[in-house]
Amino acid sequence: MSNHCVDVLEADFDLLVGEASKTRPILIDFWAKWCQPCLKLKPLLEAAAEIAAGAFLLAKIDIDQNPNLAAAFRISSVPTVVVFLDGNPVNRHTGILTPSEIEAFMRPYLPGPAEEFLKKALEATTAGDDTLAFQLAKEAFAADETDDRARLFLVKCLLKQPSGQTDIPLIESLLEPFSDTGPLAAEVLKLKGKLFFVQCPPVSGIGSDLYQKGCAKAAAGATEEAIVLLLEAGELNDKLARGPVKLALIQAFHLLGEGHPKLAAFRSNLMMLIT
Questions:
Q1: Known catalytic residues?
Q2: Which domain holds residue 221?
Q3: pTM for the predicted model, two decimal places
């Protein structure tokens, strides 16, 4: 038996599938000896597991030997394959699959070519080596430009570049494919907020000095201090409050993130400022 394939019984399921799925994806193959499509699919799945070289484990479950598992997964027809990840089923397919279809089916759950670069880049960031992290971020993105994590990590590194060296057009092009909704929305909004303060459009009039100081604080990562300064600027200049200050505060709220203990109070302050 290959190290990448295992036959699973009901007594083994929690260990071989449940626990194992916390460290790598499990592709469960529900099959039966009397099922001809199952017998055709079996070697294709085994070959895919070998090619993946351990990136996922193929767990084969004979529904006749394991009726309770089949019932638990509501298997009404075989072959059925189920992706199991972090202790939960996340996708399934019933019927035969070609090798290319198997590869496409598993691709979202497997590490891409940027994975190793990203891992090292995160380690470099933790160690405080931003120069190495930036180089690894560029290598990660070059390895797979379709990897959203690699794209966003590169944006983070670009935004850390010294003042005057930030490549604004490149950052804008990297962020362009993302919307403000979806699973990456919070991170994307934070990066867009940081980009706003790095550029910090100039203003004039009473309170403009506080506005500029607030933008500088936000760009440096002192978001709460920035919000206080921006609110003070708005209190001094109603026109500023309803224009640049309002826009800047919205970006600062994105930097704080939903769930921040002071966010609701800051939003209330903004509403009082402009009403």
A1: 35, 38
A2: 197-274
A3: 0.65
